[in-house]
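Tokens for chain A. Residues wanted.
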């Protein structure tokens, strides 16, 4: 079945069941690698674990630029496939590699220069500052694998190939998991690199993943005259995703700064939440990835009812799956936290926080799916507004407000933000249908 038949006529549940599992498996391996990464660093040093929490927003910013650009390429290619202009779709794919390399060069240069300053505004501990600079410079400067793989995987997904990106993610994650203990602790005669070893393992894994997708995804650059028009469309479609992911960077950085006013242990607890979040959000992340080309294709084909059906089924599936995450955060927080840290204060702070955060998981489905829906139908303004409302207008200001009543109340930020964002999303959706 070709792309037109598959996206345009196949039963929606079958589409999701076919294209979502490979994405979910890849993200499962990726989440497992993130957890293992933190596990080994936590065993090496508690300060290293805090450093990973501090550098996490910058890693999200890298992902935002790489994947957001890839999503713009993916969505634009799906649109051209929808109107049966395959040549235009391949022109868009050909622009992907030069964009990825350009973004990497700019990001690497900026991060190398600002890393010491970034570390010092995040903590007063000289040991943690040193770890942040060492780890951060390696993962940011040697991030070419992340940028190229992020773009190439989206090119393949636009063509309906979900398996190759999955294989790439698995290969990269397994490489990272194998190298982590070897490079961190020094094994088999290899030098003990400490936290630098974790960073080296990460970038090698990213490069391996990029090499796997390169064979099928690399497309020669089109004529220079094509660049301006296509880049404009790529970022019209991709900016909502970049904004959404970048906003995560700034709100997590903002929340880290608020929690730093209480203790480094509070920052670590928040960082451990995001490690576990990456594991429990696999179904939601897969749905976000998979529905974009399906909705974009059918919107270009002027099948509004099918677009609405995709949204409805993805919301129902997302809520059912996220309920499992709620149960774990409510009933197993101590076990989840103690996997990484033996610090009693980290566990106590995190346990209280996990109880509040678990309640937020169900409304979080709608607050994260709606921006993707609006992005897929080309309504960039509504998608961007929802992202800004959630991350800038609500998360950090509410975090600051609730923190004034004490650390315990800070965690109310999560459920309150998700409920309010969901209400705004529903209002936008109803106005779109009117």
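Reply:
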């Amino acid at each position: 079945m070709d792309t037109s038949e598959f996206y345009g006529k196949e039963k929606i549940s079958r589409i999701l069941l076919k294209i979502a599992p490979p994405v979910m498996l890849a993200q499962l391996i990726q989440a497992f690698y993130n957890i293992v990464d933190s596990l080994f660093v936590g065993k090496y040093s508690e300060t290293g674990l805090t450093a990973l929490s501090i550098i996490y927003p910058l890693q999200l910013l890298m992902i935002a630029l790489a994947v957001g650009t890839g999503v713009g390429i993916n969505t634009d290619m799906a649109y051209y496939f929808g109107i049966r202009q395959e040549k235009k779709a391949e022109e868009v794919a050909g622009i992907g590699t030069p964009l990825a390399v350009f973004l990497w060069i700019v990001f690497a240069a900026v991060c190398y220069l600002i890393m010491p300053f970034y570390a010092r505004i995040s903590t007063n501990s000289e040991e943690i500052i040193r770890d942040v600079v060492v780890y951060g410079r390696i993962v940011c400067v040697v991030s070419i694998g992340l940028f190229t793989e992020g773009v190439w995987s989206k090119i393949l997904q636009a063509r309906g190939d979900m398996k190759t990106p999955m294989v790439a993610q698995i290969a990269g994650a397994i490489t990272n998991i194998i190298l982590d203990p070897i490079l961190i602790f020094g094994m088999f005669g290899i030098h003990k690199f400490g936290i630098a070893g974790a960073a080296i393992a990460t970038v090698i894994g990213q490069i391996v993943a990029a090499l796997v997708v390169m064979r099928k995804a690399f497309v020669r650059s089109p004529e220079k005259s094509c660049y301006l028009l296509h880049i404009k469309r790529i970022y019209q479609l991709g900016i909502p995703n970049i904004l959404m992911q970048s906003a995560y960077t700034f709100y997590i950085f903002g929340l880290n700064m608020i929690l730093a006013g209480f203790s480094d242990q509070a920052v670590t607890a928040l960082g451990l939440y995001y490690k576990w979040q990456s594991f429990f959000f696999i179904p939601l992340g897969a749905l976000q990835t998979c529905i974009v080309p399906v909705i974009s294709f059918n919107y270009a084909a002027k099948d509004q009812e099918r677009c609405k059906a995709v949204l409805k089924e993805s919301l129902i599936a997302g809520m059912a799956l996220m309920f499992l995450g709620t149960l774990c955060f409510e009933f197993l927080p101590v076990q989840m936290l103690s996997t990484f840290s033996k610090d009693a204060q980290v566990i106590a702070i995190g346990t209280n926080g996990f109880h509040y955060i678990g309640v937020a998981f169900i409304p979080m489905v709608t607050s994260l799916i709606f921006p993707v829906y609006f992005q897929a139908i080309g309504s960039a303004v509504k998608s961007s507004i929802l992202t800004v409302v959630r991350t800038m207008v609500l998360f950090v200001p509410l975090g600051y407000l609730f923190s004034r009543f004490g650390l315990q109340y800070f965690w109310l930020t999560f459920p309150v933000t998700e409920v309010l964002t969901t209400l705004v999303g529903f209002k936008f959706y109803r106005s779109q249908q009117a």
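The CA atoms of residues 39 and 340 lie 5 Å apart. DSSP finds 18 helices and no strands in the chain.
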